[in-house]
Each structure stands twice: as C-alpha cells, then as structure tokens.
Amino acid sequence: MLTRLEVDGFKNLLGLEIDLGAFTCIAGVNATGKSNIFDAIQFLSLLADKTLLDAAQEVRGVHGDRLGDPRDLFWNGYAAGAHRMSFAAEMIVPLQVEDDFGRFAKPTTSYLRYELELGYQPPSGAEKVGRLVLLAENLRHINLGDAARRLRFPHSAGKFRKAVLSGRRSGTAFISTSWDNGQPIISIHQDGGSRGQPKPAAAARAPATVVSTVTSSDDPTILSARREMQSWRRLALEPSALRTADRYVDPQVMDVTGRHLAGALHRIAYEDGDPERVYARVAGRLAELEGVAVRSLKVEEDDVRELFTVHLTESGGLTLPARSLSEGTLRFLALCVLLEDTSVTGLLCMEEPENGIHPANLTAMVDLVRDLAVDVNGTPGDDNPFRQVIINTHSPNVVQLVDPRDLLFADAAMRQAPDGTVTPALQLRPLADTWRVATSTIPPVTRADILPYLTEPPGAQLRLEIA
C-alpha cells in the first residue's frame, strides 16, 4: 500500500506531496496533469522490474511499446542545463514474499520509505539517445511507533494497522547512498542491521535501480519493497481485449488491458469451490447497471476449440457472448471480476472510470471501484483483499458521489522550478475539514470553491422544451 508519494522534477510535478488512503479520487479539469500522478507511480513500478532506460521508454506505453526520449520525463524536457528528478514513496509492504527461486521470506519490518534520485546524461560517441543516471537510492524503515501519526487516513488501529504492520529495525538503512570523490556509491545492508558487511556498488554506470536487482530471499525487506512496487498497476481496460475468448493454455489472470477476463473468471469460480455462487455474485453486481437485464452469467467451456468464453443470459432468455456487450458494460464486468479475485492485491490506478457509463449508472460504478479497495476498518484477508485504488476524473457527477474525505482537487499553479524559474505545476488540494488538511502545504478547497465545478455550465438546458 502506497501511503505517501513525493515527486519533484518529473513532468509538471514539482515539490508534490500526497498522502494516500485505501481509496483516492483525484478530480480536476482536463490538461492539469492528473495523469502525471499515474505516470509517476507507473514509472516507479517499472523501475522495480526493468532497466532505467526501458522503464523511461515504457511510461504511458501501449502493450510494452517503447515511446519517447528520457528527457520527456523531466520538467525541463529538452531545455539546456541539468536534468534531475526525485521520488519518495512510503509504503506498507507484504508480510511474506516469494523470491524468484520459489523460497518464502518475511521482511524485517513492513513499513518503509523508499527514495530515488535520477539524472540525465546526454548521448556521446555512437549513442543516439541519452540515458538516465542513478544519483541516489535509499530504503529505510519507518518506526512502527510513528505509524499512528504518519498513517493519517481514518482506519482501525486494532483491526487494520496492527494486522499490516510488523517487525522492527534500528540504525542502518536497507539501501543507502554515500559519496566517494563526488561519485555516488549505493550499498545494500543486510536485514540483520549492523551485523554483516554492506555490499557497495558505484552508481554512475548502473543500468537499473538496486531494488530491481534483488531477486532472492537473502534480502527479504528489499525484496518485499520490490514486490510491493511491482504490484502497482495502471488499468487500461480495452474493449478488444475484453471481448477476446481465452484458450485453455492462456494465463488465467486478467492483465491491465482486461485480456484473459474469461480465463480469470473461470479460475476464480473453481477456486471458490462453488462456481455457480461466484457466477451469481458477478451477475448480481452487473445487474446493478440500468439497462442491463441479467438473468445469469457463466464461463462456457468449449472442449472442441479449447476456449473459455463469457456468456450472459438476459432476463428474456437471450444468451449473448461477451463480444456482444457494450464497452461500458464490459469494463464494469471486468471490475466485477477483479472484485472477486482475492489474488489481486496492491495498487490499482484507473483513468476516468466513468467513460462509457450512462449517467444513471455512475452510482453503481463509483460504488464498485470503491469496493475494490480494502476496508481499513477491518482486517485484510481473503474476504477483504489488501487492495488500494486511485482514480482520476473530470466528472462533476463522480465528485458528488465520492466521500469528501477521499477527494483531491487538481489544478495548476505557478511554482519555482529547481533552476529558479517559475513554471506551471500540478497541485493537489484536499477538501477543507478532511484528514489531509493537517499536513497539506497548500490551502484546502472549500465547498464554495468547488460549487462552480459542480453546477451546470452557463446555457445548459435543465429541461427540454419543444417549441
């Protein structure tokens, strides 16, 4: 769970600090940079798994395509001068992880702060594209005694906080950065703290972050941080992927585009032990949509062609395959399947989930994405998966349906950049009298401030009249 994010120098994020709960809705008009928050989270996730250059080229890519130049990620882009960006992520990591060799391990502590600083080196010689440079990387524990103060979102201390936080650590960091003759040296420290010698390496030519190189249970806390960041997903549900039938040999886990929806639902249903019960729950949730008359839903197994296909039977008796459903219905169905999949944990980022949804169905959609997130007043487990959800929206209707405590309002403000110039940057403002206000460095939004955003635009017809 990502509980706090700090970003400086990435796109139009300058000095940005966000405290996050289980569910967050970022609202604002187009072109403010709301999507850059998701880009920053996606970038950190990619850096936990790929090289610096690969991660930079895949941010906001499609199907793993590499797009753009690394300079596209810096606030000053292609301008002359130094290029630097920094990140800090405070997170609650899994209490047990599996390494790349199938061995299980437990972190020394599950509450961590990860810091990363990157620079840019222009191309030289035969190089045509510059590269990112690792300038600093740190991973430290956060004292569990400080959790009540730092986990600011409303939650149950006994059922939630004590269940997800464990362990202790003092002194040495798990990853630290020092300097030798002006060059950064990054060291890995064993989980035993002061026992054992650190493993240092020069950062100047490092092709990847240290976190991304840890694959074994020898460093369980770093591995837990890596697994947590790898679990941060950016959903981009695509109708073509959602309409595709699955072969028996395909993965039975739905990917970020919605591919393998049928295989995933089949697996979930049979893992439950009562497939019809799972299908009934999904059908019942789908039936909350106005205009979707659902009698039943199931995954059909075609043993001749070896295919799984989702079929929906309407109240009138007509049976339709998934490829015949509307785009909005398919996206809603995909989220219903995610809700049932207890194996899906971590952070889910969703752009404008209201797209393709009729206004009459916005309440059902907002309730569904909120229900995907863990209930922080209960104990995480199979019936309360440890999931976190962030959505962004420009819809006033969605804003009115979201709990005010979960809202952040995005707008652009002039900020001083690292080189002293003034440039427009994204700022996120909480609603007055909500939990984020205590630590926010910018004025909160009042209900009067957002009233124009929530009202109909000038000239809009509140009723239709025929002359």
UniProtKB/TrEMBL annotation:
InterPro entries: ATPase_AAA_core, P-loop_NTPase. It holds the Pfam family AAA_21. The keyword Lyase does not apply. It comes from Actinoallomurus spadix. PANTHER family: ATP-DEPENDENT ENDONUCLEASE, OLD FAMILY-RELATED (PTHR32182:SF22), DNA REPLICATION AND REPAIR PROTEIN RECF (PTHR32182). Residues 292-399 form the ATPase AAA-type core domain. Coiled coil: none annotated. SUPFAM superfamilies: P-loop containing nucleoside triphosphate hydrolases. This is AAA family ATPase. Keywords: DNA damage, SOS response.
